[in-house]
């Protein structure tokens, strides 16, 4: 009985060790990770906002800033796609769509439509 109990206890430990060996990283992986930098929480948030923007607006082009504009007055958002702005806020104009609205990005990295009449272009 003593040998059987020891054998039963030992088997799971051996399995754990084998799984651990398989999960260990090779030397090549460790060397590659030296040059990778961890992203800050702000960068992660910006990437999340960009992903949400691309899904919401079905925007597949490269995101380029055409110009910067300043909000003349504070405007709350009426729809989910609208960007709420405060007076004096700096906005990056990403794309000019048909009509009276442009797609803008604020300093927090959020995207949305803003009416041209609420913006002051320098």
TrEMBL record:
<protein>
    <submittedName>
        <fullName>FYB2 protein</fullName>
    </submittedName>
</protein>
<dbReference type="InterPro" id="IPR036028">
    <property type="entry name" value="SH3-like_dom_sf"/>
</dbReference>
<keyword id="KW-0597">Phosphoprotein</keyword>
<dbReference type="GO" id="GO:0072659">
    <property type="term" value="P:protein localization to plasma membrane"/>
</dbReference>
<dbReference type="InterPro" id="IPR043443">
    <property type="entry name" value="FYB1/2-like"/>
</dbReference>
<dbReference type="GO" id="GO:0007229">
    <property type="term" value="P:integrin-mediated signaling pathway"/>
</dbReference>
<dbReference type="Pfam" id="PF14603">
    <property type="entry name" value="hSH3"/>
</dbReference>
<feature type="domain" description="Helically-extended SH3">
    <location>
        <begin position="53"/>
        <end position="119"/>
    </location>
</feature>
<dbReference type="InterPro" id="IPR029294">
    <property type="entry name" value="hSH3"/>
</dbReference>
<dbReference type="GO" id="GO:0005886">
    <property type="term" value="C:plasma membrane"/>
</dbReference>
<dbReference type="GO" id="GO:0050852">
    <property type="term" value="P:T cell receptor signaling pathway"/>
</dbReference>
């Amino acid at each position: 009985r003593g040998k059987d109990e020891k054998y039963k206890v030992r088997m799971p430990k051996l399995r754990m060790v084998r799984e651990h060996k398989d999960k260990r990283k090779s030397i090549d992986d460790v060397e590659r990770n030296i040059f990778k930098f961890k992203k800050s929480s702000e960068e992660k948030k910006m990437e999340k906002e960009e992903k949400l923007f691309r899904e919401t607006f079905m925007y597949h082009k490269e995101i380029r800033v055409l110009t910067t504009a300043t909000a003349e007055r504070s405007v709350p958002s009426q729809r989910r796609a609208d960007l709420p702005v405060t007076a004096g806020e700096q906005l990056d104009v990403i794309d000019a769509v048909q009509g009276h609205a442009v797609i803008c990005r604020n300093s927090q990295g959020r995207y949305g439509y803003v009416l041209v009449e609420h913006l002051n272009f320098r």
